[in-house]
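Each lists sequence, tokenised fold; shown next:
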Amino acid sequence: MSASRFIKCVTVGDGAVGKTCLLISYTSNTFPTDYVPTVFDNFSANVVVNGATVNLGLWDTAGQEDYNRLRPLSYRGADVFILAFSLISKASYENVSKKWIPELKHYAPGVPIVLVGTKLDLRDDKQFFIDHPGAVPITTAQGEELRKLIGAPAYIECSSKTQQLVHAECEGSFRCSHQSRPSTTQAKEKEEQSTKGRFYIVIVTVVRSLCVTHAPFLSSHCSLRSLI
């Protein structure tokens, strides 16, 4: 039996958007009720994708400015980033393009980013907005617009509390940025691109599984098979 593939997945985003809750909900099937700012933490989970076992290393990071220098230390070796914002926070939505994309492009250029909108259960909660008059809901259309703006291949909306996922949008094609390398034969280049495509599908499939505990992998609005 071949060894399992290891994928390092790092979550980033503003503080209090629900990054830690997302990971805890997936790994322990529980929802933490108390907010404790994260400095650094990691989790591990084994996921079966297309019959193969993938060891998923989940790295949680702090979004507060106090950790701007420490946080990038966890980016090294990342295979994919979960860039999270809150669906009830316009500031966290705007910071995706203002703060997080520039940071990730600087420290981890070329690494795929999956955009995730959290706290879906509160977006349709009228009482929440009565109690928090300054809160602004972010629509699915706005999330998709942001996905296109930052060039993320996938966008997901979810609730860690209810373990609900209602929207997952994936581009029909994906080109992975990579450093230039010595030229090879056309056959080898084609094989490498095919391998990258399959690896990307594994990443997106695994990341989607984070949002629905113990649920089957989702086909979303696009066919994953069409991308392989």
Notes: The mean pLDDT is 74. The CA atoms of residues 86 and 155 lie 13 Å apart.
